[in-house]
């Protein structure tokens, strides 16, 4: 793909990241009305007990009319500590956890004011980890209902049926709790990074979107 338009995402799913790796130009929508229960402020990891959704609590300054660019992060609970502890507990025995820990852990020590700023830093770090630091997504300045690029703004969603991904589209790789849970496709990109390490980039390029 040459150009794509995506929603922002918090530690995005593998399919979201594959679309970025396979595209030459990446734009991220931030002037949409912020929707509930999406990857914009949530990621999924597979713990010993099953899939765990980690959600960044947010504040909508204009209620249901708040734009994604205006979404503020709510620090009334210590969600950062909860998210990082969950990641450590899940992945500390994965092959590449220590390899990427020092890159990702500092994100949880900062207090970004906006969700877009948090996600922007995370995406930048992920692209660095994947060996693509030169990829620089650009952010929209207004909302367009129709665009002249591949429109993926609502393509990646936690409520989509995971069985829609057949093995050819989302190849199996070894996961931490696969013996217990079976292979779970399209988790957060950190699942792929911590389990495949430098091979994650090639994996993303092979996914059929």
Walk me through what this model shows.
A four-stranded parallel beta sheet has the order 7-2-1-8, with helices on one face. A two-stranded antiparallel sheet has the order 3-4. Strands 5-6 form a two-stranded antiparallel ribbon. By secondary structure, the protein is α/β, with parallel strands linked by helices. About 30% of the residues lie in helices and about 15% in strands. The protein has seven helices and eight strands, in the order E-H-E-E-E-E-E-H-H-H-E-E-H-H-H. A hairpin with a 2-residue loop joins strand 3 and strand 4 (about 50-55). The protein starts with a strand and ends with a helix. The chain has one domain (about 5-205).
Key terms for this structure?
single chain; 209 residues; four-stranded parallel sheet; 8 strands
Number of strands: 8
In terms of quaternary structure, the protein is: single chain
> Strand count, sense and closure of the main sheet?
4 strands, parallel
| Rg (C-alpha, Å) | 16 Å
List the secondary-structure elements in sequence, H or E: EHEEEEEHHHEEHHH
Structural class: alpha/beta
Low-confidence parts: none
| Overall average residue pLDDT | 93
Strand content: 5-15%
* Shape estimate: globular
Query: What is the domain tally?
Result: 1
The level of helicity is 25-40%
The total of helices stands at 7
Main-sheet strand order equals: 7-2-1-8
Distance between the termini: 10 Å
């Amino acid at each position: 793909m040459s150009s794509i338009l995506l929603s922002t995402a918090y530690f995005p799913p593998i399919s979201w990241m594959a679309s970025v790796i396979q595209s030459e130009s990446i734009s991220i929508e931030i002037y949409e009305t912020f929707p509930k229960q999406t990857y914009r402020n949530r990621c999924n990891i597979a713990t010993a007990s099953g899939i765990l959704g980690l959600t960044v609590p947010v504040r909508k300054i204009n209620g249901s009319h708040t734009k994604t660019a205006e979404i503020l992060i709510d620090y009334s609970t210590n969600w950062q500590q909860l998210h990082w502890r969950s990641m450590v507990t899940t992945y500390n025995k994965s092959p590449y956890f220590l390899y990427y820990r020092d890159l990702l852990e500092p994100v949880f020590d900062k207090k970004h004011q906006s969700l877009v700023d948090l996600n922007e830093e995370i995406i930048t770090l992920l692209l660095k980890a994947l060996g693509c630091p030169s990829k620089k997504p650009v952010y929209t300045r207004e909302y367009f209902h129709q665009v002249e690029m591949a429109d993926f703004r609502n393509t990646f969603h936690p409520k989509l049926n995971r069985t829609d991904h057949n093995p050819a589209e989302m190849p199996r790789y070894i996961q931490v709790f696969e013996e217990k849970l079976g292979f779970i496709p399209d988790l957060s990109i950190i699942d792929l990074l911590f389990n495949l390490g430098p091979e994650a980039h090639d994996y993303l390029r092979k996914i059929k979107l």
